[in-house]
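Minutes, project check-in

Agenda point 3 was the complex the collaborators sent over. CS summarized: two entities, 227 residues total, and the question is how they sit relative to each other. Sequences were read into the notes so everyone works from the same version.
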Amino acid sequence: AQSVTQLGSHVSVSEGALVLLRCNYSSSVPPYLFWYVQYPNQGLQLLLKYTSAATLVKGINGFEAEFKKSETSFHLTKPSAHMSDAAEYFCAVSLYNFNKFYFGSGTKLNVKP
Amino acid sequence: EAGVTQFPSHSVIEKGQTVTLRCDPISGHDNLYWYRRVMGKEIKFLLHFVKESKQDESGMPNNRFLAERTGGTYSTLKVQPAELEDSGVYFCASTEDSGANVLTFGAGSRLTVL
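CS then shared the predicted structure for the full assembly.
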């Protein structure tokens, strides 16, 4: 069975500080992993994805994530937070056919001035 | 290119009433998905259409939920009769090809059942 755990429903950082959003997964087969972001009143937008190529994946807006099989993790990072990064972030896992995604419960990122 | 459009953005109904949510996918996208997020929990898969056919409806909670996609264009999700636990945000997503690994999501329809 597939599942995703996001540690911390709320994370608060200061502008310019490191952003670290944690995601651990379980999957019965090699997974494909994704991070989505939702800004207020908007749909989920793809930040980045891991589909069995390089384990360090770079996404939009300066975000990146590293797939660590031994730790079953796919944590999202950004070196320097910006006010515009305040949003809710979702980690997701999908199987080979991409027709069903399993999402975590989301992490709300607050960026303090 | 227009995105995935969902209507209404917010619906408030009483227990026992009926609500119909609508999703207009991106034009030409054969694959349409419904997901639901209940009370700040994880977003869960409900079902998947390929054109007008239900490919996978394993996530539908019970027979109070009926999804249709007549003509393979827009889709509706009807809840009848609505219960308190149906409250949440219903997301629609679409993609052109089965197996494409990027879904385009709508902004969601928030359903509040009182």
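Noted in discussion: The interface with chain A takes residues 3-4, 9, 31, 35, 37, 40-45, 48, 55-56, 59, 91, 93, 98-108 of chain B (CB under 8 Å).
Follow-up: revisit at the next meeting once the mutant set is ready.
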